Amino acid sequence: MLVGHIQEITRHPVKSFTGEQVKKTRVMDYGLYGDRSHAFKDKNGKFLTITQVPEMVRYQAAFSGEETLDQYPEIKVKTPTGQALTWGEEAFHEEMERLLNQEATTIVYPPGHIPLGAIEEENILLVSDASIGELTKLWGKGLDGRRFRQNLVLSLVNKTPFLEEQWFGKRILIGNEVELEIKRYCERCMIITVDPSDSQRDPTLLKTVVKERNNHFGVYASVIKTGEIRVGDQVFLMD
Fold first, then answer.
1. Which of 153, 171, 177, 237 is least enclosed by beta carbons within 10 angstroms?
2. What is the largest CA-CA distance in the chain?
3. Please, which residues bridge with residue 9 across strands?
4. Helical ranges in the chain per DSSP H
5. Please, which residues bridge with residue 108 across strands?
6. Order of strands across the sheet that contains 74-78
7. Which of 208, 225, 226 is CA-nearest to residue 216?
8. CB atoms near residue 104 (< 10 Å)
């Protein structure tokens, strides 16, 4: 059954940086190609994220080049001041020392495998356009979808908010080859309170999600069959 099409594809080459919207990408067994492949860990070996350093969200990372399984394309990072840096160069390390303001190490996972932990509980996070629209109404403010750090936004045929939550245990087919299994709710945390444009916090959004949605927004999916996806691909709910 046709349920919609892919409206947006977003991957995050650097964990907790703002990601990039792409027209097409590979779906690997761990999720979107290169998603959360680069990260920072503190001296205790824990990931550094927006939770500890809200300003990380103001840095935007994007791959520059062709996706290959041998190595990642070069990562370009745009700073809040508009400066363009390259992952690994000296100017980038200097900027990260200023940003993180603590002892930190860089982590790079290979293109063939990125573990859970770098990626969250499942391979892919999915939301629908109807759900974003309804939450915008519930919150009563303009909503920047980047707050939710999803990988896929589905434009639904049936514009019922939170319809995707009825698909737990079922599979969807994207295009001609990629299959995902919808697993469970995404439980939200303080990260959604951080505005990607200026890193300012507004706790009322999380309070709204807790009150109106039992702290659930978006669904996690596991990859069943890999392949390529594109914006505009049809999405089918499988029997």
1. 177
2. 53
3. 152
4. 90-100, 129-139, 204-213
5. 38
6. 60-64, 74-78, 84-86
7. 208
8. 17
User: Closest Cα to residue 145, out of 2, 9, 4?
Assistant: 9
Which pair of structure tokens corresponds to residue 182?
Answer: 């919808």
Q: How far apart are CA 183 and CA 219, in angstroms?
A: 7
pTM for the model stands at 0.95
Residue with tokens 């629908």: 128
Q: Is 211 buried (19+), middle (13-18) or exposed (0-12) by CB count in 10 A?
A: exposed
Contact 121, 31 (CB under 8 A): no
CA 6/CA 235 separation, integer angstroms: 7
Average pLDDT along the chain, 239 residues, taken 10 residues at a time: 98 97 97 97 95 96 95 97 96 96 95 89 94 97 94 98 98 97 96 95 97 98 98 96
The residue written with tokens 């505009």 in the block is: 232
